[in-house]
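In response to reviewer comment 3 from the previous cycle, which asked for concrete evidence that the modeling workflow produces usable outputs, we include below a single protein chain processed end to end. The sequence was submitted unchanged, and the resulting structure tokens are shown without manual editing.
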Amino acid sequence: MSGYRNEAMMHCADMYYSTIGLVRNETRQQDQVKARAALAVAMLDYGIQDQVASVVGKNRSTVAHMKRNHGDWLLYWKGYRDLHETAFGIARKVLGRQGANEKIKNINERIQFLQSEKENLEKQLNTQTEL
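The workflow returned the following structure tokens.
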């Protein structure tokens, strides 16, 4: 992750936790899990899953799980919608100010990641076809 992007995402996380009045930790307590998920999903528009995962202290699979369940959580997980709206607003304010060069760099990082994923899937498919 680029230095600027890392600092901006960490700053976003710090502002978010300060705003919601929660001391950040890595426990599985519901308030921590809910806050972490809301922040992660809000930041996905500004970075790839690996970047977001490093900021929230989880792995890419966990961030993918958060993204996949986001819609249901908005509807059924009490308090999640408010946390996400707060996180989204902060992420847009802090991370949305990046310059054109930073946006291009971020898009290129996403493209590289997706190309790597594509190559891995093609290798798996070729391996399965050969069997």
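The chain has one domain: 3-98. We consider this sufficient to address the reviewer's concern, and the full set will be provided in the supplementary archive.
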